[in-house]
Each structure stands twice: as structure tokens, then as C-alpha cells.
Amino acid sequence: MIAFTDVRKVYNQGSQKVVALDGVSLLVKPGEIFGVLGQSGAGKSTLIRCVNQLEKPTSGSVVVDGQEMTKLSGDKLRQARQRIGMIFQHFNLLSCRTVVENIAFPLEVMGYSRLKRRAKVEELISLVGLTGKADAYPAQLSGGQKQRVGIARALAGEPKVLLSDEATSALDPQTTRSILDLLRDLNKRMGLTILLITHEMAVVKQICDSVAVLNAGKIVEKGYVSDLIAKPESFLSQEFFPHRNGYKPKPGAVIATIAFAGEQASQPIFATLARNFDVDVNILSGSVETVGDRRVGQFHVELEGQKVIQALKYLHEAEFEVQVH
């Protein structure tokens, strides 16, 4: 649904050139929720704004639903943008308009009749859970309600793609979860493809199918969230399962990270090591989490005993991800 191919964006700041995106390539599948994770200054906002050409790439191509956005201009670009909804961190609502009027605004621009606007807005208000707030002004709404207005407005043109620019960063944790639940519901109900940027691991965990980690304008890793989390060497895994630092192992003991996913997460692996190899397992850190519909776990452990090497071999043969430190 969205394809970036070797996208580069360079800003001129006086006599200096600032590289915001440096050869970014990624694919977002139809109906997928794809997250772009990175800290401030990584290039996330530039990347998402290249999708609807609010930012023009210096080079490379961006294709959305078969259309190469980087080659469009004028009316063709405006028409293509109508199929791409966008929600923002600070809502960007019109303070002098009611909920109904804010949601109806893009429909006015697209030339919908008053009757069609009214019917569409009523449908959207119900869809995002704002029944009873139709005549309220933004100042009378909570942060979560404002973002629901923003989502309804973004859906007014019946887009195939929804862009989320740090849409939950200004919200408290409970409201964030409710907005993410709404986005996931819309994704499933409407087959909506969602590209979201965030600096929060909790957002990736709760909602994303796939993720790309962006750092200094470059993608450092990408893939399915559960696959990356299950690999101890991945950035995502290390952020998701922070290790205990400064621990000094006992003489002769081995420190290892053991990761597993899916059915492996239900196996009594540490009991098996103790029973079959007489290995003592000291859990230093770790947990088992549910990511999407898949259980993923990782433990940082100290292994002690005469048959530690045989135990590690067993884990490898059983296709557990093991990293010896």
C-alpha cells in the first residue's frame, strides 16, 4: 500500500545541509499497522509527511496505492491526498467550529452537499464514540475526545491510508490505550492501512504489526514486531527487555539471554534444564509479554553446572534464540 524506495530528504539551513532522511526504503502492506519508532530528530515526521507530499523528497520515490506521489502535482496531487487521512499530536482542530463542523470541513472542501455531509458526519461521530458531543466546541472536550474528532475528520474522505503523527504523545496513558484500541478497531473493521510514528515502545507493543526503527535518518532495523522482539540482538528486543547491568557472575557460570515466541513460551524450559542437565538457573531479568496475538519472552540468566554446554546445545537444537555473553 505504501512503498518508500531510497528516499532522501536534505534541508538547506543557511550554508549547511541537514540530512533528515538518508536512503530510506520500506514497504507497508495493505491492512497493516506499521510503526516507525525513533527519538526526536530521527527523521520520523519528515518520513510520514513525505507520504502525502507535505514534504517533497530530495530524491527517491514514494508510492501509495499504486500512485507515485513524488510525480504528482496540482489537481492530481490534491485528489490523491483525499485518499490519505492524517491525525496529529496536537489535534489541529478549528477552535471556532463544533465537533460536527470540524468533521464536516474536509467534506465541504471536497464539494459534498449539505445533506450528504450531515449523513456522513453522523456516521463518523458514532464510529469514533462521540455520540452526544456533536455540538461541543474543542475547548469543551478532553484530549482523548479531541483526538477522536481528529480521527473522524481524517476518515471523512474514506481514505485507504491513515497517517498518525505522534497522535497519542499529548495524552495520558489510559487515554492513549483507548485511542490505540480505536485505531486497531478501525483497522480491522475498515481494512485501513495505518502508518504511525512514535517514540513510545508501549505504542508499538499495543498496536503495531510491523515496525521500522529510524535513527539519524536511516532505518537500522525493520520487520514484524514479534519477530524482532524475539531476537536478543535486535534493538527492539533490547529496548523491550532491558538487561540487568553490573552483575558479576559466579566463577565458572555462564550468562546467557534466552528468547522464545509462540508455542515455546508455554514450555517449562528452565525446569527442563534443571531436571535433564542438573543446571542451576538464576533469572537476572526478563518476562513474557503478549505482542499482538503472539506470546514473546526473553530472560537474562546465569547458568551454573557441569552440563551447561550440553544445555545450551539443547536450546539451540530446540530452536530457541540464545545469546551467550
TrEMBL record:
One of its GO terms (cellular component) is plasma membrane. InterPro entries: AAA+_ATPase, ABC_transporter-like_ATP-bd, ABC_transporter-like_CS, ACT-like_dom_sf, MetN_ABC, MetN_ABC_transporter-like, NIL_domain, P-loop_NTPase. It comes from the Bacteria. GO terms for biological process: amino acid transport; organic phosphonate transport. Pfam families: ABC_tran (PF00005), NIL (PF09383). One of its GO terms (molecular function) is ATP hydrolysis activity. Signal peptide: none annotated. Residues 2-241 form the ABC transporter domain. Keywords: Amino-acid transport, ATP-binding, Cell membrane, Membrane, Nucleotide-binding, Phosphonate transport, Translocase, Transport. The keyword Transport applies. Belongs to the ABC transporter superfamily. This is MetN, D-methionine transport system ATP-binding protein.
